[in-house]
Fold:
Amino acid sequence: MASKKGIHEKTGNATAFSKSSTQGGNFKLGEKIDKETLGIGLLKSGWMKAYIDFFYLTHETTPSVIVPSEQLKQEYE
Structure:
């Protein structure tokens, strides 16, 4: 079981976010998050399984309809 400290190191916490994202009361935007930057961030953080899941969710890797070949149709007739 992961300790609370280990979980916060991987996920981040609100205190660290608020300190790094505000300066002098002004909100500071971070870098733009898109598929590429999120994927790179997952890999850099060591979340290989999360990257694989993210990849399959964001890429059309399987066809939505599988059309049987003529040979397959003949075998089932």
